[in-house]
Write a structure and sequence with these properties.
Family: Belongs to the sigma-54 factor family.
Strand order of the largest sheet: 3-2-5-6
GO cellular component, one term: DNA-directed RNA polymerase complex
Strand content: 5-15%
Keywords: DNA-binding, DNA-directed RNA polymerase, Nucleotidyltransferase, Sigma factor, Transcription, Transcription regulation, Transferase
InterPro entries: RNA_pol_sigma_54, RNA_pol_sigma_54_core-bd, RNA_pol_sigma_54_DNA-bd, RpoN_core-bd_sf
Shape: extended
GO molecular function: DNA binding; DNA-binding transcription activator activity; nucleotidyltransferase activity; sigma factor activity
Distance between the termini: 95 Å
Order of helices and strands: HHEHHHHHHHHHEEEHHHHHEEEEHHHH
């Protein structure tokens, strides 16, 4: 078998997009939130002596109260203002109560041992048997320690399961319904599964009495320790501001809280005076980096403003109508209108916020898919359908709640084509229970 190999030269022209490091960072900057952008710019300022990062503030319109220097205590003069307010954790609260209420005995040491096994929700994560094995104490001693732990605040702390958590709270509440403790202790499963007729028959009461117990249980906390969770307040710096004057909607870029980069001209001039070639080359590269970052930041702001303006224009009814209706809108529609890539729109709306007089909203929240067409041939958004489902449930007969199929029939009578599965999905999203669990007996 003879094999022939022919070699020839061909010239082809192929277009390829080279993703340079600067281009990648420029794309990434568009995706950054305001806080992320500030962190990025500050890291660049550490590497580049020609970059100075400042936070833009717009407090010119705020009233200034005259204060004498003697009584003045501002953020710069009072170190106490620099200390963040942090609430006491559940463990710290329990420890403080133990030292306040119990003498320094071996029993107190066992209570403290238990606190180390109380999770952030207030539940005990160790069994009595395991506690006995680890401490070497008697079972009765550990049980006494657990009982004393469960007498601390908040009510329900130290419980080993939900049933015990509820019982501990009911036990302390003098306003609890008379049968609440007994029902939760003896008929917890039937009560939770809404087998209320069996529960009512056992105790010789009517269903409204069981309904009253249910309403009371709903007021108790299944996670008594959650209130002590350490939460850090997060402040949002809106990227856009919406001003409404009559029927006119104006979209502006916000200045307050936005990072601004400035060029260190004096440092540049001083370095340029040197005759060292390496120094001159160094500041030339750093100057080019500053120019690129400056352009990228400006382009980021312009892109967000363009996208935000188009979103507001398409969702004008949301800003003018008190019902806040949303029209179906996709990223692709905005991209085609602005003649940019869909991924650019996605980056421009993710983590970016718009401020109005009635609240702050993420730009991404204005995008909603169309579900169907109503009788007028207009597309109805999923958000509008969810709102309508919520309204139907709020005004239903609580003794005969609307089933998912009934909601489907009512929506279809209004011209909205929807399936029962979709109604169930939207109901779950809205946190609405099934009809069997919404039924009331009062």
């Amino acid at each position: 078998m003879q094999y022939n190999q022919n070699l020839s030269q061909q010239q082809k022209q192929v277009q390829k997009m080279a993703m340079t490091q600067q281009l990648q960072q420029s794309i990434q900057m568009l995706q950054y939130s305001t806080d992320d952008l500030l962190t990025f710019l500050e890291s660049k300022a550490l590497e580049n002596p020609l970059i100075d990062v400042k936070i833009e503030s717009d407090y010119a319109d705020l009233p200034i109260r005259h204060t004498s220097k003697k009584n003045y205590e501002g953020p710069e003069t009072s170190y106490l203002n620099q200390i963040p307010d942090r609430g006491m954790s559940l463990f710290e609260s329990l420890l403080a109560q133990i030292h306040l209420n119990y003498r320094d005995t071996y029993l107190r040491q066992l209570i403290i041992f238990f606190t180390e096994y109380v999770d952030v929700n207030g539940y005990l994560t160790i069994t009595l048997e395991e506690a006995v094995r680890q401490t070497g104490a008697d079972y009765i001693q550990m049980l006494d320690a657990l009982i004393l732990l469960q007498q601390l605040d908040p009510a329900g702390v130290g419980a080993r399961d939900l049933q015990e958590c509820l019982l501990l709270q009911i036990e302390r509440d003098n306003e609890a319904p008379p049968l609440a403790y007994v029902v939760i202790e003896e008929e917890f499963e039937n009560f939770a599964n809404r087998k209320w007729k069996e529960v009512a028959n056992r105790y010789g009461v009517d269903l409204p009495t069981i309904q009253e117990i249910h309403d009371y249980i709903q007021s108790l906390s299944p996670f008594p320790g959650a209130a002590y969770g350490e939460s850090t307040e997060q402040y949002i710096n809106p990227d856009l501001l919406v001003n409404i004057k009559g029927e006119t909607i104006e979209v502006l870029s916000t200045r307050s809280g936005a990072p601004v980069i400035e060029f260190q001209q004096r440092y540049f001039d001083k370095m340029a005076e040197t005759g060292d070639r390496e120094v001159k080359q160094y500041i030339k590269e750093k100057k080019a980096e500053f120019d690129w970052i400056k352009r990228s930041v400006t382009q980021r702001g312009d892109t967000i403003l363009r996208v935000g303006t188009e979103i507001v224009s398409r969702q004008a009814a949301f800003f003018l109508d008190t019902e806040r209706p949303l029209k179906p809108m996709t990223l692709k529609e905005i991209a085609e209108e602005l003649e940019i890539h869909e991924s650019t729109v996605s980056r421009a709306v993710n983590g970016k916020y718009l401020q109005t007089k009635f609240g702050v909203f993420e730009l991404r929240s204005f995008f909603t898919t169309g579900l169907s067409q109503n009788s007028d041939g207009e597309e109805v958004s999923a958000a509008d359908v969810q709102t309508r489902i919520k309204q139907l449930v709020e005004h239903e007969n609580k003794a005969k709640p609307l089933s998912d199929q009934k909601i489907v029939d009512m929506l279809q009578s209004e011209g909205v084509e929807i399936s029962r599965r979709t109604v169930a999905k939207y109901r779950d999203i809205l946190g609405i229970a099934a009809s069997s669990k919404r039924k009331r007996y009062d």
